[in-house]
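Q: Sodium/hydrogen exchanger, please. Structure only.
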Amino acid sequence: MHLLEIFYLLLAAQVLGWVFKTLKQPVVIGEVLAGVLMGPAILGWVHQGEVLNFLAELGAIFLLFMVGLETRLKDILAVGKEAFLVAVLGVAFPFVGGYLYGGAIGFEQLPALFLGTALVATSVGITARVLQELGVLSRPYSRIILGAAVIDDVLGLIVLAVVGGVAQTGALEIATAVRITVISAIFVGVAMALVPLMRHLPLERLPMGSPLGFALMVGVGLAALAAVIGLAPIVGAFLAGMLLAEVREKYELERPSFAVQAFLSPIFFAMVGVRLELAALAQSQVLLYGSVVLLIALAGKLIGGFLGALSQGFRRAVVVGVGMAPRGEVGLIVAALGLAAGAVNEEEYALVLFMVVGTTLLAPLFLRPVIAWAERESNSERKRA
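A: Structure for Sodium/hydrogen exchanger:
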């Protein structure tokens, strides 16, 4: 039965992906809509389950592992200041906007805090797929987005820890936030410190089946370690890919890794569609309030990303802002935690669902033309030089 469901997802993802590619639109949108089509919302041929959820998680891990393989640490460090600013501003603006709007429409303080928290985290997998598809992962604005996404995840986790502490105990859990900050900083710092060692590591002499086997082990291992300390597994996968980027040409890691990603990542995006509860979005109040939450979510990341990356130029700063806009499973997890704790009700949860669906579908649509717009300016600059 699981094999049949995987076949349905892959078939629909390939067909709709091809349709969107033919229409010169991001393939990822077709893959998400494939999940909506095959899932409970329409045909009901595919349902959530442990096997499919696990394959979807692996798809996200291998997508970010591949993105990391095309990103060297020195390139990220070269835009480190901008990435940090983009992450901080891109967390602050949506959080404050969501909190204030929640209060304005009658939410109690705790549901308003959860609404702001749900708007914080970026789903970099969606943006990374579009950047990869357009072949612009080496551009400085792409590195800013990827670097900011790592910092963004840590900041989002800290905000969630604080708000979650308020929900459970009624008090700020400063100690928990500090602990998460320190552990996350150590994890990212150690991964970056290993880069010089990786350059001189003779993979062919290690007691491993092959350099590729070692690379996949590192990717999955760091993803698992990230999950253990509370970060998104894709952060660990991205850092693992960045480590191995130092030896990617020497050991031919990209091509076979891409083959694995090409199988798994469409399942990840299709499962995003399968999980969407479209019936919850049909209520008029959800459509009205949700549209405003969606605008706050888009504007918060756009303004934060734009201001943080303005040193790169106007058009490239717009690309960064749009690239940081997609939300994904993290926003839903935050809302689900609030629902489980009794801090938010079903209607408040539906607003977050509406925002996640909207940013998931709209951000890739806007990202492609703004990248083309920025690339035209870059080409003109190169010609003048």
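A: Brief note, in case it's useful. The CA atoms of residues 224 and 326 lie 24 Å apart.
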